[in-house]
Amino acid sequence: MESEGQDVKPTRSGPPELWALVERIAASRSFGRAERLKDLLVYLTERTSSQPGTEVQEHEIRTAVFGRAADASTREDTIVRVQVSKLRKKLEDYFASEGADEASRLEIPRGQYAVTWRPRGEVSGEAGHEDRARGGRLAPLAFAVSVAAALGLGLAAGLLLRAAPRPVTTTPALDSLWSQIFRKDQQTDIILADSTLTLVQDILHRSLTLDEYMRWDSLMQAPAASPEADAMMRATRGRRHTSMADAVVVQDVSRLDRGTARQVTLIFARDFHARHFAADNVVLLGSPRSNPWLELFQPAMALRFRWDETDRHEYIVDLTPPPGGAAEYRLERSPGQTGVLRPGYGIVAFLPNLERQRSVLVIAGTDMEATGAGGHLVTNEAAVVQLRERLHVAPGTALPHFEALLSTRKIGGTAPSYEILLARPIP
């Protein structure tokens, strides 16, 4: 008689975005009442996240998920192989239907039990090395997303980005912002967030400062609090991941350069240097949790990111809330979906650099959807028109320095929508 198995409780190793995705999958119609498959998914995700690089053994799964004896014959007891095969098919069904709009996906490669989590459209490692060998120059715009995804596989950053010519259209609202960032006599840098940093902070259970981030090699070699954490730190040491949301924003931003910038460079946050802020205009992607360079500019902003170590999610505070406005913007848990957080919040800020000689554009969110919403806000003509109205900017004038707060919401399998909660000039 088959055992009913054990209750599998996740200890939640790994980034919150990963677990939010797991819970959306488990709550989907694709999984329905397949409770044991949900337990299996949770176990494999936790096991892979907590012990990266260590092979998941069949006997572990048999005992932990299905309550079978550890010494059962793998030849006679095929429950693990059968159920993992079913789980693999369920995941494929989810991402082909309800999860078609997910920015990342979970897979269980055939022939193994480890779960892989990657951005949609991520290119193979071989393709990434091939592009590096060619010198990294990006010609067609469509290739920008592939290259940004390849950065997650270790492709060297500092890549030159040249967009395909944008059709000549009248976009006065967009031009009122981007003419200040793309300039023929100046270079523009786009700094990609470092998703590996998020994972490292989850392992250490604390947020890292920019100063610590700039000493990455020393940080990664320092002993962690436990042997398990130390092993995870070693496993992440050489990883270079960014998010798919950043790749999409890069694609949208690239369309806006009509050859007006001297040069546009795509740089991984870990490869950036503070001296570039003085000489170049910068587009800064990601919150301080994944891009600590934002730490330099938060003092000039009333909207600031905070990290809640207890609930393990980012939220936003407003140091100068308007009358009747909120001082904090925290994520909420959706009714009936334990652990699924909605809505997300994003910040878009246009600032002078520290010497007030160049410009910095911040696009950051509490999750990938919020970052994507920020990217849409500054690359869509109608959205910038709305932003200008909220800022009370006179027609025909350049967009002033500002900060804006966005709220995103996603219902079911629909694409996320967003609204501008507030927008105000920055002196």
Model description:
The chain is α+β, with helices and mostly antiparallel strands and 427 residues long. The chain has two domains: 16-119, Orthogonal Bundle (Arc Repressor Mutant, subunit A); 125-194 and 240-425, no CATH class. It is 34% helix and 18% strand. The chain has helices at residues 16-26, 35-50, 58-64, 79-96, 125-133, 143-151, 172-178, 195-204, 210-213, 216-221, 227-236, 244-254, 275-279, 368-377, 381-391, and strands at residues 104-107, 116-119, 159-160, 187-192, 263-268, 281-285, 303-308, 313-318, 328-329, 332-333, 341-342, 344-352, 359-365, 402-409, 417-425. The strands form four sheets. An eight-stranded mixed sheet has the order 3-5-4-6-13-12-14-15. Strands 7-8-9 form a three-stranded antiparallel sheet, with no helix packed on it. The longest helix has 18 residues, at 79-96. The radius of gyration is 23 Å and the shape is elongated.
Topology, please?
Layout: H1 16-26, H2 35-50, H3 58-64, H4 79-96, E1 104-107, E2 116-119, H5 125-133, H6 143-151, E3 159-160, H7 172-178, E4 187-192, H8 195-204, H9 210-213, H10 216-221, H11 227-236, H12 244-254, E5 263-268, H13 275-279, E6 281-285, E7 303-308, E8 313-318, E9 328-329, E10 332-333, E11 341-342, E12 344-352, E13 359-365, H14 368-377, H15 381-391, E14 402-409, E15 417-425
Helix pairs in contact: 2-4, 6-12, 8-11, 12-14
